[in-house]
Amino acid sequence: YESSSGTASGYTLYVTNGNITGDIATGNYEIFFSNIYWPASDSGTWSVTCEPAAITNHVDDICIESCIDYGEPDETEVEYEFYFEIGTDDTVNLVEVTTPGTPGVASGITFEIPNLANQWDDINQIWTTYEYDPCESVYYWEYSKSTSVPSELDCYGDGWYEVTVFYDGGGSDNTDIWYGMPADTTPIPQPIQEPNFSNFTNRQRLESPATFWWDACTDPNADSILLCLERPLTYNDVEFDFNVTATNSGPLDFNDGYWETCLSFERWEEVSHNADGIPYELAKYSESDYMFGFGVLAEITNDDIVNFEDFAKFAQGWLNQDCGDWNLYCNRADLNFDNEVNNDDLLIMSEDWLLSIE
């Protein structure tokens, strides 16, 4: 077909010798012809309809990440992490992902994410969850693998990820995501520099408002900096993005209590959509974790004063070494959120005794 044109979904398409060009995304499209009029000459007008892949009606977005987690400053073991997330509607009841692996090193694997919240495989250090986000009106499926042996992540690797969603009424659809530099065949470079705060020590009790300073990022693989702060168990969190040359943030106001703080040197690649029309984002980054306390730290009964009621709850968890999200940090007896109730927590209780939250 020579020099013919038509309009599809607001885009102008040009067909020359059977090839479609113009303002459309790269990818595979099914083209349906309707009300076709074949003129006697070599030119004419006809109508075309371009329909997105069926999976785009059910998948909102996809994210793939790799991380080097240095943990808190007093920890000596570095964790290497792989993370996958997909957002869907409520018709999806299972997600399956096939990874590319690392050619010549490790074959790819296929993993599943069930529609269950907070599933932890302690042997393989794999966590999955399925949760509804009412703010986004999206169901999020998450998968993460952490290890102290980086070669254990070779089975994930850079390259093409095949994602399959299975529906409640039967049937499935799949889509492919390229985990690498967009429009390129090279991997996303991995930042490796350990981020460190320069004006505070880990678990220091600070005055609010506080300004955070960190060592300059000199890692050529990083292109941005992320500062995340979250209050454990409350899900109150805030994030700040910075240019890679930034070295501080603040002053910031904080409520009483402990705040988990994560500083990351990052490389993000956001892609408008893949061949099936699904938006996705990719990342590799290094991060360090800190914990800072502000104001009164031992008030755990929500009566705004540290007294015998708080001490009674604290005493119930004394010497417990299995505290975490799963048991509300030993029903809040773990005052400093370090996963155990010990003398460090007792010191906090004594320092805050009879203090009140204004």
Structure description:
- The chain is built from three helices and 21 strands.
- The protein is mainly beta.
- The strands form five sheets. Strands 6, 7, 10, 11, 12, 15, 17, 18, 20 and 21 form a ten-stranded mixed β-sheet that branches. Strands 9-8-13-14 form a four-stranded antiparallel β-sheet, with no helix packed on it. Strands 1-2-3 form a three-stranded antiparallel β-sheet, with no helix packed on it.
- The radius of gyration is 26 Å and the shape is globular.
- The termini are far apart.
How would the blueprint of this fold be written?
Layout: E1 4-8, E2 11-16, E3 19-22, E4 30-34, E5 47-51, E6 59-69, E7 79-88, E8 92-98, E9 110-114, E10 119-121, E11 126-133, E12 138-147, E13 159-167, E14 172-179, E15 205-206, E16 210-213, E17 224-231, E18 236-243, E19 248-252, E20 257-271, E21 280-294, H1 308-316, H2 328-331, H3 343-351
Parallel strand pairs: 6-21, 15-21
Antiparallel strand pairs: 1-2, 2-3, 4-5, 6-7, 7-12, 8-9, 8-13, 10-11, 11-12, 13-14, 16-19, 17-18, 17-20, 20-21
Features of the shown structure:
single chain, 358 residues, mainly beta, 10-stranded mixed sheet, 4-stranded antiparallel sheet, globular
In terms of structural class, how would the helical and strand content be classed? mainly beta
The H/E string reads: EEEEEEEEEEEEEEEEEEEEEHHH
Number of strands: 21
Low confidence ranges: 1-27, 33-42
Distance between the termini: 77 Å
Mean pLDDT over the full residue set: 88
The oligomeric status of these chains comes to: single chain
Number of helices: 3
Describe the sheet with the most strands. Answer: 10 strands, mixed
Helix residue percentage: under 10%
What form results from the Cα inertia axes? globular
Strand content: 35-45%
Radius of gyration: 26 Å
